[in-house]
Specification:
The complex is a heterodimer of chains A (about 280) and B (about 650). In chain A, helix 7 links the parallel strand 7 and strand 8. Chain A has about 280 residues and is an alpha/beta fold. With about 650 residues, chain B is an alpha/beta fold. Chain B contains 21 helices and 28 strands. In chain B, the strands form seven sheets. In chain B, strands 4-3-5-6-7 form a five-stranded parallel sheet, with helices on both faces. The chains are: A alpha/beta (about 280), B alpha/beta (about 650). At the A-B interface, helix 5 and helix 7 of A face helix 5 of B.
């Protein structure tokens, strides 16, 4: 196989020793319907601390709905979500954010008129504690606080190699870079669990390779647990520790990329290759 | 200058020069800045001394021996420059490599240099070294600067820069005085660097240069240009390129300059603006980019800004031309220039980061005169420089009051330049290299009787300026023995905005003849403005008005060739405009737009024969390949023009 710059890491693979035994998030019997349409039916799986979990499935399988349930955007009619040992039947988005769950969106949701830097700084809002008046005056403790946050953000900018676009309004950036800025903003909240909704959609091969490298590096460097939705099977197989497969709102398989790849139900439902 | 260095640079090495600079610049003076995390982080000379000391001792702890080579790979980073100096302290030789080289290229150089050590920037380079390690048995230690992404690499020969420094501090405690002893053992004739030249043909060759080569050249350049210790420079060109080693390492250490390392290769232009260097070096490509950026931004500007800009540029160009022609500008001209400077040039230069430049060089290849003149009219002291790796860069450069776009200036003090019988430029200088590393044969070919062959053909013009005309191997002779340099003539033609390509013929012929390609965009625009209707490229190329337009350009080129005694015999006599563009799809030029001379000569043999006959017209047809791969035949009746040659019966 041709070596894939940036993604393949010789000598690194055997070294990726992480303890993946602790469960961070447990989804139990979650069902979600919109009127008569069942988006999710009785889905259960768990996310281990420190892993990269991919959710795959055909269009309309309920992947984005699953992410929306996890970060509290949708409230499921049935089921339980246990995050860091605390069980919720429903969680509000701001509670999820405060609890360390961050996400990126399928259709980039940045402030297009603001610069890259300002966009990423908004990711620090939750961490700013000084009162609004001081912040508005940019004075005293608020100023010091902002400097600290800026330092943190600059480390992320360096990490994601977007120094050159720091001062450019996001709306003027190419798509691949906007996705990276969005990832950076999500990281600025110092998430424990990061939800990525199609982080590589619409990218060319080179941009995808870069993004893969950043996802692996973030996981490696910060130990961030990640749940991602992705269509590119090559990417999924390369970077995820485990894969959950959804089809028509049901979970049809779960396991390592290799296990999933050879599962006949998955081949039928998703990969579309007949096995005979 | 530095008192401890003898005026000819003998008796000194870089580590010694560095320690002098530390003493002179004090502990507080800033030696190097790197933009990191959005802020320019400074290191004083004293801090650099500690960094270098710890790393050098760390290398010693790893078993670094005198004469060992250490490969240096990465973007311009302070740690990489420190690594070079640290290796030199121990009598070692840094071998900088191009950071974008692929594994195979690196493997050749690392193997050929028999390097035991490598200092690389980050994971990207480490991965390459992991790949080549099995084929480079001599390579023992790979040291990386940036640990990002490497924490899980389980390879015993991988070690971080910080770890090496830590081991160095321990080694230093156990072996007090070790480094000082090693530095004292260094001799000026020891190798300071081996620079592998990229080489358009064959394997790269390792150019061996000594401490004495660089320090003596640095001193003569500093004197020639009146450079002081307050110079500010931007280290942004590849470290493997001799120009960067000379400027960001050599000159900076000898002169005590402040070096600035950009945040990343993508931010160089922003960093340039923030730094505002006083001494700046860029190949023609960069000047061209800067100019294009300005023009594009102006096209998008509001009409009033655009008007003001073009008025000011007009004023500046007119004044520049007057000065070049030796006329005195009138007080009104000067007033207008002042206004232009206030409203346009000043802010523009500030925006480009050129407002503090005292001396700027362009080198490497020919620069278009309009680009050169643009920057000079703005008031940027842009000058031509001629040099090569084998000469420690500098061979010839222009004095501040003798700057022209078409010469390379006069020999730098200490450099002797001689033109061989076949037109090749030879030199002898204190900066001349010691030979190619482990390549006796190439060394013998290159250095003959103490003179180094440059491989370039040139001549000394009536003002004593060196002019480079072509690569020596492309230069030939006309039938009557006149020197014929095709590329020199072609470049002169191509400097016209209306001419895109030109191919000159003349070897063993009576006179020079040219095939010319018009530039469809600029000539097309020109035709539209004159309401000249045309149906195709072929049609446009044979319009009588277009022939007249190009005729004026050929006359201009002939007039400039006639100014030089040695070249006036090669004025263009007969020429024609080709009915189709030379195209890489038709294999007439390479993808990098170099004319494939022999192929063109064969393909257009009928046309060339016609040029060397008496006919005024030639019928032709040619097969063209369209972008979708279809082929078609283009027929044309091509006019052949005869140009008057100055001073010719």
């Amino acid at each position: 196989m041709q070596r894939n710059e940036g993604v393949a890491r010789p000598a690194a693979e055997p070294g990726r020793r992480r303890d993946l035994s602790e469960t961070l998030l447990r989804i139990e019997g979650v069902s979600l319907s919109f009127g008569g349409l069942n988006a999710l039916s009785d889905v259960s799986f768990s996310v281990r601390k420190g892993e990269i979990l991919a959710i795959i499935g055909p269009n309309g399988a309920g992947k984005s709905s699953m992410l929306n349930v996890i970060n509290g955007f949708y409230w499921p009619q049935k089921g339980r979500i246990t995050y860091r040992g605390v069980t919720h039947s429903r969680m509000r988005p701001h509670e999820a954010a405060a609890a360390g769950i961050a996400r990126t969106f399928q259709n980039i949701a940045l402030f297009r008129g603001m610069t890259t830097l300002d966009n990423i700084m908004t990711g620090r809002n939750l961490k700013m504690h000084k009162n609004l008046l001081l912040q508005a005056l940019h004075w005293g403790p608020a100023r010091r606080e902002e400097i600290e946050h800026r330092q943190f953000v600059e480390q992320l900018i360096d990490f994601l190699e977007i120094q050159a676009i720091r001062k450019i309004p996001v709306g003027r950036l190419p798509y691949g870079l906007q996705k990276r800025v969005e990832l950076c903003r999500a990281l600025a909240t110092e998430p424990e669990l990061l939800l990525l909704d199609e982080p590589m959609a619409g990218m060319n091969v080179e941009e995808k390779e870069d993004m893969c490298r950043f996802i692996l590096d973030v996981n490696d460097e910060f130990g961030t647990t990640m749940v991602l939705i992705e269509h590119d099977m090559g990417v999924v197989m390369d970077i995820s520790d485990r894969v959950v497969v959804l089809d028509y709102g049901r979970k049809i398989a779960e396991g390592t990329p290799d296990e999933v790849r050879s599962n006949p139900d998955v081949i039928d439902a998703y990969l579309g290759i007949s096995h005979g | 200058m530095v008192s401890a260095i003898r005026s000819d640079g003998s008796g000194e090495t870089f580590p010694a020069v560095f320690l002098e600079s530390v003493k002179r610049m004090g502990e507080q003076g800033v030696a190097i800045r790197e933009k990191d995390y959005g802020i320019w982080q400074s290191y004083t000379w004293g801090q650099v001394q500690e960094q270098v000391r710890d790393f050098a001792l760390g290398l010693a702890a790893l078993g670094f021996q005198r004469g060992d080579r250490i490969c240096i790979v990465g973007d311009n980073r302070p740690q990489l420059y420190w690594g070079m100096l640290a290796a030199q302290c121990l009598g070692g030789v840094p071998v900088p490599l191009y950071q974008d080289s692929i594994e195979r290229e690196m493997e050749f150089i690392v193997g050929h240099a028999e390097a035991r050590f490598a200092l690389v920037e980050d994971q990207e380079q480490v991965d390459k070294f992991l790949g080549i390690k099995p084929n480079c048995p001599k390579l023992e230690h790979v040291i990386y600067k940036d640990p990002r992404g490497l924490r899980n690499y389980q390879t015993d020969y991988l070690v971080s820069f910080a770890t090496v420094q830590e081991r160095g501090r321990a080694f230093g405690r156990e072996n007090p005085g070790y480094l000082e002893q090693e530095i004292a053992k260094n001799r000026p004739d020891d190798l300071a660097v081996i620079c592998y030249t990229s080489g358009t043909t064959g394997r790269p060759k390792g150019v061996m240069l000594t401490h004495h080569n660089f320090i003596s050249t640095s001193l003569s350049v500093s004197e020639f240009e009146h450079l002081g210790p307050d110079e500010t420079i931007l280290a942004y060109l590849p470290m493997a390129w001799i120009g960067d080693f000379f400027l960001s390492f050599g000159m900076a250490l000898v002169g005590g300059y402040t070096v600035h390392c950009p945040e990343s290769s993508a931010t160089v232009m922003q960093d340039l603006r923030e730094v505002g260097p006083t001494y700046f070096f860029a190949p023609p490509r960069i000047w061209e980019n800067l100019l294009t950026t300005v023009m594009i931004r102006m096209d998008d500007a509001s009409w009033i800004k655009r008007k003001l800009f073009h008025w000011a540029i007009g004023v500046a160009t007119a004044l520049h031309k007057k000065r070049a022609a030796g006329q005195k500008p009138s007080p009104l001209d000067r007033l207008k220039y002042r206004l232009g400077d206030l409203f346009v040039f000043g802010p523009l230069k500030d925006n480009l980061g050129l407002s503090k430049v005292r001396i700027a060089y362009t080198a490497g290849e020919a620069i278009g005169p309009e680009i050169f003149d643009f920057f000079r009219s703005l008031g940027v002291n842009l000058k031509q420089l001629y040099g090569m790796t084998e000469a420690s860069v500098f061979l010839a450069m222009q004095r501040n009051d003798e700057v022209r776009s078409d010469t390379c200036g006069v020999p730098v003090p200490g450099v002797e330049i001689r033109i061989a019988a076949d037109g090749e430029v030879l030199f002898r200088s204190p900066g001349a290299f010691k030979g190619y590393f482990r390549n006796e044969e190439a060394t013998r070919e290159s250095i003959v009787d103490g003179w180094v062959k440059t491989g370039d053909a040139g001549f000394i013009d009536h003002d004593g300026h060196l002019r480079i005309i072509d690569r020596a191997k492309d230069v030939s002779k006309l039938h009557d023995g006149t020197l014929f340099a095709p590329k020199y003539i072609e470049n002169k033609l191509k400097f016209s905005p209306y001419i895109k390509e030109a191919v000159a013929f003349g070897q063993d012929r009576e006179f020079v003849a040219c095939l010319i390609n018009i530039d469809p965009n600029s000539v097309g625009n020109w035709a539209e403005r004159r309401h000249l209707a045309y149906s195709s490229y072929t049609d446009l190329s044979q319009k009588p008005e277009v022939l007249e337009l190009i005729d004026a350009e050929v006359r201009r080129v002939n007039a400039s060739l006639a100014e030089e005694e040695r070249l006036k015999g090669t004025q263009i006599h007969r020429w024609l405009i080709l009915h189709k563009e030379l195209d890489p799809d038709d294999e007439e030029i390479t993808r990098t737009r170099k004319v494939r001379r022999r192929f063109v000569a064969e393909k257009y043999k009928a046309l060339i024969d016609a040029l060397y006959s008496d006919t005024q017209h030639v019928q032709t047809e040619a097969k063209v390949t369209f972008e979708d791969g279809r082929q078609a035949i283009v027929r044309a009746d091509i006019a052949i023009r005869t140009a008057p040659r100055n001073g010719h019966a």
